[in-house]
Amino acid sequence: MVVSLGLCLFALRIGLAIRRARLAHRPPPRGARRRHLGVAKPGVTLALLGAALGPLSVALLRDWTPMSSFHALLGGIVAVLFAGAALQGRRLERGDRAARNAHALLGGAAVSLALAAAIAGFALLRDAAPRERQRESSHAAATQSPRGTIGDFAVSVQPRPGVQACVNPGVLRANPHGSERRTRVPGAAE
User: Model-level pTM?
Assistant: First the structure.
């Protein structure tokens, strides 16, 4: 996503140079249109691919709920804006000059919100490390001892003789081979 954002920023810079030249009634910089197309097409393609694969990676690799963060909200909006900018750019490429303003507006908004989504994504990565460490320590505690804490409850599982206890961190599942008991953790917030 960092590469796609870099490509899109570079394409925006070239596009703004073309727009400034057009508004000043000057010819655009030499080869600017070709460079803009050569950079924007792969940048937008990678951004849309990342927007599609983001929820899959969240669900499959991180075991989080997809589309449940501010980053996901911004990413969805950015994907729609990039798709719109690409469609308007295609119209421009085919000679429809009426699409200029819409293309500029959608492209600028998409890149601006993509930067905000990147910042929100870095905040998620920063918060993910403590969650992963907590999950690992909870899992280690659960596998070493049949007693652990889940939420505001202390869980104690007494399996039948010869059956190993299994406590999944973060989720309390009934153990069909044993009994479970929930008690309030002393000092926990009500």
Answer: 0.66
